[in-house]
Write a structure and sequence with these properties.
Number of domains: 1
Shape: globular
Strand order of the largest sheet: 5-2-1-4-3-6
Radius of gyration: 13 Å
Number of helices: 1
Low-confidence stretches: none
Helix content: under 10%
Length: 91
């Protein structure tokens, strides 16, 4: 499967289940759509994030392409938002 570049916004640590602030770029090999929730690796550990943009052209991130991290897990959005449980979906 072809890898894609996506932008995500992290969950706000003060207002859970809201996603705002700056968008961060990641690469992924799993199919994602705008609005999907994922587990995003950061320098401070894993964070829940919402996909804000998909199919980012490589020329937009060329200067930082070598440092992009990989998203490998999509979570069940409905379960997380309603029950606050992280249920990972099969890729």
């Amino acid at each position: 499967m072809k890898t894609k570049i996506v932008n995500v916004k992290y969950e706000d640590k003060y207002v859970p289940k809201t996603f705002s602030g700056r968008a961060y770029s990641y690469i992924t090999a799993i199919p994602l759509e705008v609005g999907d929730l994922v587990v995003a690796p950061t320098s401070y550990g894993e964070k829940i994030a919402r996909v804000s943009e998909i199919n980012i052209p490589e020329f937009k991130i060329e200067f930082m392409k070598a440092s992009l991290k990989l998203i490998t897990e999509k979570i069940d959005k409905k379960k997380y938002l309603q029950e606050n449980k992280i249920k990972k979906e099969a890729a």
